[in-house]
Amino acid sequence: MPSKVILVLIDGLAWQVAHDGMGYLQGLCEAGRASLHCLDSALPSLSRPLYECILTGATPVESGIVNNGVARLSTQQSVFHLARDAGLVTAAAAYHWISELYNRTPYLAVRDRFTDDASLPIRHGVFYHDDSYPDEHLLLDAEMLRRRHDPDFLFIHPMNVDDAGHRHGYDSPQYRNAARRIDTQLATYLDVWMELGYQVIVTSDHGMNNDKTHGGVLPEERQVPLFALGDRFRHDGAAAPLQTQICGIVADLLGLRHGKANNREILAC
């Protein structure tokens, strides 16, 4: 039975910080309503290459999006493409690099910041281009899209954790508190979404290091969380999904035909 899906990608959120600081999401895990898994990001552990990895299943080496400066449309089939081609409604509240990967390149704010175009892979979008754009506002943008357009697949992409890491480093109260804030802010929405039958994945692209950057193989740069919420998940801590399988997992939940790598162990049905 197909389900609607919300994928929340909290940019720059390291595994240990999520595990230790996100009390609401951990509370859902303790209640048996969610599960937490530790993933290794693909390499390099950089944002634009890993957006592509999460949304298409292709590693940076495979996709050719190998650093943040590769600003072009994806040549891969993303979950947005799969959903659009199946007649489903897609939406995103996200950083403008997502628009550049799947809708139009270059991003022109006056044209692309607010998008409503059924011909595009991301039909409805609210995109931002300032790394300090408040997560609270971004979640309001996402909820507006959900209420107004009732999307089958909604992608939500807050940036404040990553911004705090680049300003202050991994081992800083500012970075940890940014993770705590987004956990608190998500608490406003997650119960509502699950009561409406959405299956929700909360994950990250990469972590952060004490040099205030990322890109390599240090655990704090590469290990990221994946919280799975909803009744379509087994909530089995022994399941070991890969970052390259997220696209396939979402496609399975949406009921799409696809050839993506997936992980059926994480799904209950």
Structural account:
The protein is α/β, with parallel strands linked by helices and 269 residues long. It has a single domain (5-266), classed as Alkaline Phosphatase, subunit A (3-Layer(aba) Sandwich), CATH 3.40.720. It is 40% helix and 16% strand. The protein is built from twelve helices and eight strands. It has helices at residues 15-21, 23-30, 47-56, 60-63, 79-85, 96-102, 109-112, 135-149, 160-168, 173-195, 219-222, 246-254; strands spanning 5-9, 34-40, 90-95, 114-116, 124-128, 153-156, 199-203, 223-229. The protein has an eight-stranded mixed β-sheet with strand order 2-8-7-1-6-3-5-4, sandwiched between helices. A hairpin with a 7-residue loop joins strand 4 (114-116) and strand 5. The protein is globular and about 45 Å long. It starts with a strand and ends in a 15-residue tail after the last helix.
Oligomer: single chain
- Indicate the percent of residues in helices: 25-40%
Strand order of the largest sheet: 2-8-7-1-6-3-5-4
Encode the helix/strand succession as letters: EHHEHHHEHHEEHEHHEHEH
Q: What do we call the CATH topology?
A: Alkaline Phosphatase, subunit A
Number of helices: 12
Tell me the structural class.
Answer: alpha/beta
Please state roughly what percent of the residues sit in beta strands, choosing from under 5%, 5-15%, 15-25%, 25-35%, 35-45% or over 45%. Answer: 15-25%
Count the domains: 1
CATH class: Alpha Beta
Mean pLDDT: 97
Largest sheet: 8 strands, mixed
Number of strands: 8
Spans where pLDDT lies below 50 across 5 or more residues: none
Rg, Å, rounded: 17 Å
Report the span from N to C terminus. Answer: 8 Å
- Report the CATH superfamily: Alkaline Phosphatase, subunit A
Q: Per CATH, which architecture?
A: 3-Layer(aba) Sandwich
Principal-axis shape equals: globular
